[in-house]
Design brief:
Length: 221
Amino acid sequence: MLAEWEIRLPDRLAEAKQAAEAAGRTAITVAWDGEARAVLEVADAVKDTSAEAVRRLRALGLTPILLTGDNRAVAESVAAEVGIDEVYAEVMPQDKVDVVKRLQAEGRVVAMVGDGVNDAAALAQADLGLAMGTGTDAAIEAGDLTLVRGDLNAAADAIRLARRTLSTIRTNLFWAFAYNVGALPLAAAGLLNPMIAGAAMAFSSVFVVGNSLRLRTFKGA
């Protein structure tokens, strides 16, 4: 825009602008009366819990990727601060969808965390869309799961809880299958007393319910 208005940026302001962009901040030039007067630095504050959340996601065997429409300098600065190695910057909403599709084509299972209108299409395309509850209605509508807290740690908690739930379901199915496989032949052969069979069935139900109730002890970060 300065070029369109034929406004020259003084050397000291040009240096300040370059320094701001190199530090991962967005530089805004202020001008009036046909002359550039100042450079303002704007930056999103990274939450204190973000780096911890990235470490927890890695501990779960996941590979965090930063996918953003911000300029590359800002994106790489934030990624370095929180510990993310793979960065896709300056991407439009459709580009985000294309990145998700490319990762899926590589055989990866993709979980997308987003909160903005620009994230909605990618959230819908991902295998698992995690929308921040503090985000836009479009993102919440497109996501498969809404995280009530606007904290990336909630994503790690959700994945841990989902895995624990799946493990509990498998344990319950195994118990029910093993019980029936073992008890049915005995009952068919007349070797199982009906009273004992009834008590065993009740115990099986109590075991499944009790095992499922253990999920109530789950605690997030």
